[in-house]
Amino acid sequence: MSKELKGRVLGVGGVFFRSPDPARLAGWYKDTLGLEIENWGATHGTSFSPDAMPANSFTVWSTFASDTEYFGDRRQSFMINLVVDDLDAALANVRAAGGDVIPDKEEHDFGRFGWIVDPDGNRVELWEPPEK
Fold first, then answer.
1. What is d(CA 25, CA 35) in angstroms, rounded to the nearest whole number?
2. Residue 126 and residue 35: Cα distance in Å, rounded?
């Protein structure tokens, strides 16, 4: 682009989604994956500080074809990717909580990936960035 665009996006400011029982789902993420959940009145959530992220991590925004199988169930129109400090431990935590862990894992130069399905049926990607 030859002309710099004004009003451009600088990053992801939040991820918001519906749940039939938001408090229960927030509690599951707290107990299973260690999110520090706060009660914000009608909602429950957490904020992530950029300086808490591993040095080799980053945030991705990407579009996928409507028929992608990457998200699992075709009715799921989005997938959240959560950065974890230890993929194997995070998957073990989900298993120990009776959660659904997708058996496939992937390893790339840019990190290790695993997938879970949360209690609401959302497929979630877990990413352990490389130590490099």
1. 11
2. 13
Reported in sequence order, the residue ranges of the chain that DSSP labels E, i.e. its strands, are 38-39, 44-45, 80-83, 100-108, 111-117, 123-128
Q: What angle do CA 20, 84, 35 make, to 5 degrees?
A: 45
Distance CA 25, CA 76 (A): 17
Whether the CB-CB separation of 101 and 95 falls below 8 Å is answered with yes
Ranges of residues in the chain with a pLDDT under 50 are 1
**CA nearest neighbour of 54 among 118, 112, 116:** 112
Q: Are 53 and 83 in contact (CB under 8 A)?
A: yes
Task: Write down the mean pLDDT value for the chain.
Answer: 91
Query: Which stretches within the chain are classed as H helix?
Result: 22-33, 87-96
CA distance 30 to 45: 10
**Which pLDDT score is estimated for 5?**
84
pTM above 0.85, yes or no: yes
